Amino acid sequence: MAKKRVLITGGAGFLGSHLCDRFIREGYHVIAMDNLITGDLENIEHLFKLPDFEFYHHDVSKFVHVPGELDYILHFASPASPIDYLKIPIQTLKVGSLGTHNLLGLAKAKRARMLIASTSEVYGDPLVHPQREDYWGNVNPVGPRGCYDEAKRFQEAMTMAYHMHHGLETRIVRIFNTYGPRMRLDDGRVLPAFLSQALRREPLSIFGDGSQTRSFCYVDDLVEGIYRLLLSDYHLPVNIGNPSEITIREFAEEICRLTGAELKVEYQPLPKDDPQKRQPDISKAREILGWEPRVDRAEGLKRTLEYFRDKVQVPDRQEA
Ligand SMILES: NC(=O)c1ccc[n+]([C@@H]2O[C@H](COP(=O)([O-])OP(=O)(O)OC[C@H]3O[C@@H](n4cnc5c(N)ncnc54)[C@H](O)[C@@H]3O)[C@@H](O)[C@H]2O)c1
């Protein structure tokens, strides 16, 4: 029997590359598409020798053509960290809107099922805690994060329109902060920033007073949730994330204990519209997908640290 064929946009990025690995392991033919604006071929170079892996260097905001059949499309292309989307806000809006439209058109033409990577950012700075899927969010459309948050909200609306109007099979995953190997050290997110600062024995940068919370999900757990959602028959949004919530200040302490660094912090002003609280309500994922996270933060951070140790230049005398 011919192998099922899956297109993964953003396939050279952090999450996309882990998805490529998973679908290859599951016996699919994988086509990764990426314009490398924030991704890196190093994340997928181990797959290039495989006959069931193809890579297309392409911007999905432009017309997308893929020869042959497709069973699934996973749309993960988009700058994802504030440092990236603040630098390229227009490309961010385009990939969420035009890119999503192009891929929905492709899915319709190929009769493929399409899953989109949405985000906890659709809840903005939430007034409801923890966040359930039926909460509509508190987003500032004209603030600095608007380009990302609104692109993702539009992406969800466009996907639902294709589902309702064309009967397209669609899935929407709302991803909460995820971490693991292949995150970029300089992507500005708190976890790589803290780990690299601690490994270099530099003070950890805390924005605001550190009382804001985040919930971190290990990448393997996220990939498992996405895989189950794709194969499920549920088309409304599903939160995937780890509900274990921690303040940024406590997280700084945890990272220092893990790396053996002395706790030194440097407080900096809180960026505009930075969410105060983040915690997914995962009742739906539990109920519909039988999914919940398995890797706790202690284990996930240990695995991530292994990866970061090789990447961070640590002076000999400061070896962690
Ligand atoms: N990492 C998280 O915690 C998180 C949380 C919520 C949502 N997401 C979503 O998951 C997806 C992947 O995020 P990530 O953390 O892997 O980010 P990433 O930056 O590592 O990966 C994104 C990939 O998309 C590619 N890309 C961007 N614009 C493109 C375009 N126009 N055409 C083709 N490729 C393009 C980039 O080059 C990169 O390889 C994004 O859609 C993001 O919004 C991620």
From TrEMBL:
InterPro entries for this protein? NAD(P)-bd_dom, NAD(P)-bd_dom_sf, UXS-like
The cofactor required is: NAD(+)
Per UniProt, subcellular location reads as: Golgi apparatus, Golgi stack membrane
Molecular-function GO term, any one = UDP-glucuronate decarboxylase activity
Identify the SUPFAM superfamilies for this entry: NAD(P)-binding Rossmann-fold domains
Predominant location: Golgi
Naming one, the record's GO cellular component terms include: cytoplasm
List, for all copies, the residue spans of the domain called NAD(P)-binding.
Answer: 7-303
Q: What is the protein name given in its UniProt record?
A: UDP-glucuronate decarboxylase
For this protein's source organism, the top of the classification is: Bacteria, Pseudomonadati, Bacteroidota, Cytophagia, Cytophagales
